[in-house]
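Morning F.,

Quick status update on the modeling queue. The single chain you submitted on Monday has been processed. Sequence for confirmation:
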Amino acid sequence: MLASIFHWVVAWYLGVYLGWKMLGIAIASSLHFVVRFLVSYLCVMMDSKLKAGLIPLRDENSWKDLGEMARLGGNSVLLKVMGWWAFDVFTQMAAFLNETDLAGQTILRNIGLFTYMIPVGLSQSINFLTGNYIGKNKVELAKKISNMCMTVTFIWSFFAMAIVWFYK
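Structure tokens below.
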């Protein structure tokens, strides 16, 4: 959430206030990814349990069964990123539009990301937490966490639709 707020403020400042338009939004988007990395890194480094689980790249266990992980994870990664790539392809196709249509497409893309990417992140957390609790043989807790996260995702989706409807 912190990174999203940062992105909105910087995008407005560079794109609107300074008048850099699409260049300002592109710079704000790049900075957004840097902030997300830094927040994630700080969260891991400040949590002693997560920090204790880090394995250095020099450790032999870092490379153990790498081929198996790549084979199993490759399909999951492709399945996840295909939706993201569709957004990017439409954005690249929009470069051939005039400025007014491009502005409309940019607004629609940002609304799509707002209404799509946050529920995707929530679903990733559902998968992570549910898998951890099932692995600890706490199936009932996994079901409760899954139901709670699904409820939060539904509320977020409803909230996002209400915002889109309010500002239509």
